[in-house]
Amino acid sequence: MDPYQAERERMVAYQIASKGVKDEKVLAAMRKVPRHRFVSEDAQAYAYVDSPVRIGKGQTISQPYIVALMTELLGVQPEHRVLDVGTGSGYQAAILGELAAEVHSIERHPELAETARATLEALGYKNIQVHVGDGTEGYAPAAPYNRIIVAAAAPSVPQALLDQLSEGGRLVIPVGSRYSQQLEVWVRRGDQYQQSSNIPVVFVPLIGKQGWQG
Ligand code: SAH
User: Fold this and answer.
1) Residues 39, 36: Cα–Cα separation, whole Å
2) Most buried one in 14, 61, 112, 148, CB count within 10 A?
C-alpha cells in the first residue's frame, strides 16, 4: 500500500471536508491522487501540508483545499472535456483526469510541461494531454470545452476562454490584481455569460497575450 495513503486521508478530513467541500467524487479523487509524486524529492515532506508547495520556475502547486474547492466549483461530469490552464506540476490535471473523459492542460514553461507529462505518464493517465503554449488564448485545437479551470491569476477574464466554452459550459478563474484576487465562476448560456462566486484567493500571475505582460 502507498505509505502516503494515511496522509491523504488526513489531508481530506482536516483540510478539505472540514472546510466545507462536500462533493464525494472530488474528495475521492483527492484521496486517490498521489500528490507527493508531483513535488520534487526534497519537498516530499511538504506534499500533504495545508499550503502551496514550490515546484520550480517560481511556480507553486496550489494548496490542497484550493484544488478541491476549485474542482468542486467546476462541477465536472464523467463525459466532459476539460481545459486546465497552468499545468504546473500536473496535479490539478490528474484530479481532473479522475473525473472527466478528456483533459487538455496547457503550460507556458516547457520544462514544467515536460516534467508534468512524465509524471502523468508514469501514473498511467491516458486521458490527459499536456500542451506547451499561452493558455490565455485557450487551446483551440480541442475546443469547445465543457469546463475550463485556470490556476493563475488574470487581470480580467480572457475572451478566448469564454469563446472556447461549450453551451452550458463553466469557467473557474481567479481574477484581480497581481497580489490578490477573487475566484470567479462563469457560465455560458448562448452568447450570454453569467458570473457568480467571489472567494478571495492568491495565485501566481497568468502571463500572456490576454493576461499580465511578463
Ligand atoms: N495547476 C498547477 C499549479 C499551477 S501554478 C498544479 O496543479 O501544479 C500556475 C501555472 O500557470 C504555472 O506553472 C505557470 O507557469 C502557468 N502559467 C502562467 N501563465 C500561463 C499562461 N499564459 N499559459 C499557460 N500557463 C501559464
Assistant:
1) 6
2) 148
